[in-house]
Design a protein that fits this description.
2 copies of one chain form a homodimer.
Chain A (H helix, E strand, L loop, with lengths): L5 H11 L6 H13 L2 H17 L1 E2 L6 E2 L5 H4 L4 E8 L2 H10 L4 E5 L17 H9 L5 E4 L5 H14 L5 E4 L15 H9 L5
Parallel strand pairs in A: 3-4, 3-5, 5-6
Antiparallel strand pairs in A: 1-2
Helix pairs in contact in A: 1-2
C-alpha cells in the first residue's frame, strides 16, 4: 500500500534499509530531507556516493582509507614493531582516542564465528601473517572484544603466531574505571583478581 | 579531531545532521553504507536527490506530490464537497489508513504557533479560503492535532470560515479505543463524557 507520492515512498524505503531504522523513523528522516535546501540534499547524496567510491582498505593494516596506505601506517614516527589487532575500524578510533598507543594496527574486519559461518578466511588473517612473516614485528597486542567470538579469534591467532618470534599479548581484563564492585559480574571480578598487580 | 578517513568522516557528519541521529548512530549508518554494493549506495543517493527535486505541493490540497495535482484530488470518485484540514502530510496517510474517509484534504503544513513565530501567513490558510470561496464545499473537518497549537489553528480557521456557507466540524475527542479509563487524563475523560452518545 503506497500512501505518499512515489519519490517520497522510495526515499522512505531507502532509509528503512538502514540498520535500526523502522518505518516511522524513516518517514521522519525522509521529511527532513524534503525540508533541506536542494544544495544540502545534494551534499548528502554526494557524501554517500563518494564514501562508497573512494574508501578502500589500507594495503598494510586493512583499515579504511582513501589512499593506498592509511595515515597511521604512513606515519614514520609511530612504532612499527608493535601491531594492535582489532576486529573493526571503530576499535582503532577507540584506541586512538586514548592517545597512549603509538604502534600500528591490524583490522580484521570481523571475528571468527562458526555460528555465523565466518571462518579465518573471511577475515584479514592472511594479511596479518604476511606482515609478521616480513619481520621487524616485536609484539602483537590482541585487542579483539572480550566476548566469545573475540576470545576465540584471539586464541586462534595466538596459536597461528606461535611459530614466529613475536610476543603475543592480550588487553587486560578487570573492572572498568569508575565502575562499582557490586555491579561487576563474577567473571570480570575473577579476572580482575587474577590480574591484580602490586601498587 | 578526525579519526576516520575524510570521506567517511564527511558521511558521518552528514548523517549526524538528520534529526535524532547522534554521533554513534551516524557512525553505524555510515559503516552500513560502506558495506553496501556501489549500486545500492547510488540508489540511496539518487532517492535523496530525486525526492528533493521532484516532490512539489499539490496545487489543490497542498499535499506532497510529484505531479501538478495529487492522486487524491485527481480521483473523481471522491467526494469533493468535504475537505479534511490537517497539519501535515503524515496526517493524510493516517486518515487514509482508516479507509473510512472519501473526501478531499487540505494540508496546512504546520499550525499557528505564536511562540515559534508561525502565523496564519506561514501555513496554507489562504489556499484553503480560496478553495472554499470557489464554492461546492459542504463541510470542513478540522483534523489538526488535539494539542494547544492544533486547537488554536482549528478555532482560528473556524472563525475565518464563518462567513461562508459551510459546516465546520472537529474530530471527536474521547478515550482511545483499547485504552483504559484509569490511565486516561482528566481532560480527555471530561471530553469523552461531554461527547457521550446514545447506544
Amino acid at each position: 500500500m503506497q500512501f505518499f507520492t512515489a519519490p517520497v515512498e522510495h526515499l522512505i524505503e531507502q532509509f528503512q534499509k538502514l540498520p535500526g531504522i523502522g518505518r516511522k523513523t524513516a518517514q521522519r528522516l525522509a521529511f527532513f530531507v524534503l525540508s533541506l535546501s536542494e544544495e544540502d540534499a545534494n551534499t548528502f547524496a554526494t557524501a554517500v556516493v563518494d564514501a562508497k567510491k573512494s574508501v578502500k582498505f589500507c594495503s598494510v593494516c586493512q583499515n579504511l582509507t582513501d589512499s593506498e596506505v592509511c595515515s597511521i601506517c604512513a606515519d614514520k614516527t609511530r612504532d612499527a614493531s608493535v601491531i594492535c589487532v582489532v576486529a573493526d575500524p571503530k576499535d582503532v578510533v577507540a584506541i586512538e582516542k586514548t592517545r597512549e598507543y603509538d604502534g600500528l594496527y591490524h583490522v580484521l574486519h570481523g571475528c571468527i564465528s562458526p555460528i555465523n559461518n565466518i571462518g579465518p578466511d573471511d577475515i584479514r588473517v592472511k594479511e596479518l601473517l604476511t606482515r609478521v612473516a616480513e619481520g621487524d614485528v616485536r609484539e602483537i597486542i590482541m585487542a579483539t572484544n572480550p566476548d566469545t567470538e573475540g576470545e576465540a579469534t584471539a586464541m586462534y591467532l595466538a596459536r597461528l603466531l606461535a611459530p614466529f618470534e613475536v610476543a603475543v599479548t592480550r588487553l587486560a581484563y578487570g573492572i572498568p574505571v569508575g565502575g562499582h564492585l557490586e555491579f561487576a559480574d563474577e567473571v570480570t571480578l575473577t579476572r580482575a583478581l587474577e590480574g591484580r598487580r602490586e601498587m
